[in-house]
């Protein structure tokens, strides 16, 4: 082994070490650094985001006004994916896991059922968080700035929500799902 081989090995080792040490910018609201960033509508777990946003508005907002959102996707070292969604009109910051199940993605209710923090009730840094939906002001600011810089903006125009399904409609859907699963065993 000569000095050229050793030098090349050291250079490769240092190059790989630097690549592993590189950390993507992320909001301080996470306790662990994500390893990758993605746009939610480019990942199958989150690709129905526009439908999810409309359902969230119908469920907890005002569909008669323009609603503004910002979303960013993150992948963590353990493989978990999460999309952060900021609902600007309400000041809510959602931690959305998306769904791998076709039925729940099709119904698009996973975002409406996701946990969220209320950015309007952020407390000063160092104060005790008063509940699970409370964040520090620096975390709220970091989340908003991160989404403005790297996130995807969604503007949902006013709309008329679809009427709620009756129990009969839901039973019909469940029967259809049961029948479509019969041939899979």
Could you explain the architecture of this structure?
By secondary structure, the protein is an alpha+beta fold. The protein has a domain at 35-159. The protein is 36% helix and 18% strand. Strands 1, 2, 3, 4, 5 and 6 form a six-stranded antiparallel β-sheet that branches. A hairpin with a 4-residue loop joins strand 3 and strand 4. The longest helix is centred in the N-terminal third of the chain and has 19 residues, at 3-21. Mean pLDDT is 80; it is low at 5-21.
Question: How would you summarize the topology of this molecule?
Answer:
Elements: H1 3-21, E1 36-38, H2 49-60, E2 67-75, E3 81-87, E4 92-96, H3 102-107, E5 115-118, H4 137-150, E6 152-156, H5 167-181
Antiparallel strand pairs: 1-2, 2-3, 2-6, 3-4, 4-5
List keywords for this structure.
six-stranded antiparallel sheet, 185 residues, 5 helices, globular, 6 strands, alpha+beta
Shape: globular
Contiguous runs where pLDDT drops below 50 for at least 5 residues: 5-21
Q: What is the percentage of strand-forming residues?
A: 15-25%
DSSP helix fraction: 25-40%
Order of helices and strands: HEHEEEHEHEH
How many E strands?
Answer: 6
Straight-line distance between termini: 59 Å
Q: Kindly report the average pLDDT value.
A: 80
The largest pleated sheet is described as: 6 strands, antiparallel
Task: Tally the helices.
Answer: 5
Rg over C-alpha atoms, rounded to the nearest angstrom:
22 Å
Q: Give the helix/strand class.
A: alpha+beta
């Amino acid at each position: 082994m000569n000095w050229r081989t050793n030098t090349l090995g050291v250079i490769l080792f240092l190059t790989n070490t630097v690549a592993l040490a590189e950390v993507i910018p992320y909001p301080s609201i996470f306790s662990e650094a994500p390893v990758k960033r993605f746009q939610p509508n480019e990942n199958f777990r989150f690709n129905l985001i526009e439908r999810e946003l409309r359902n969230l508005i119908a469920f907890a907002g005002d569909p008669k006004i323009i609603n503004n959102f910002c979303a960013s996707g993150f992948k963590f070292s353990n493989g978990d994916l999460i999309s952060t969604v900021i609902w600007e009109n309400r000041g809510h910051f959602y931690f959305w896991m998306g769904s791998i199940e076709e039925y729940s993605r099709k119904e698009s209710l996973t975002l409406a059922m996701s946990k969220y923090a209320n950015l309007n009730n952020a407390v000063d840094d160092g104060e005790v968080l008063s509940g699970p939906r409370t964040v520090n002001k620096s975390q709220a600011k970091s989340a908003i700035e991160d989404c403005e810089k790297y996130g995807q903006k969604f503007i949902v125009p006013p709309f008329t929500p679809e009427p709620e399904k009756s129990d009969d409609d839901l039973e019909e859907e469940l029967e259809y799902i049961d029948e479509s699963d019969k041939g899979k065993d």
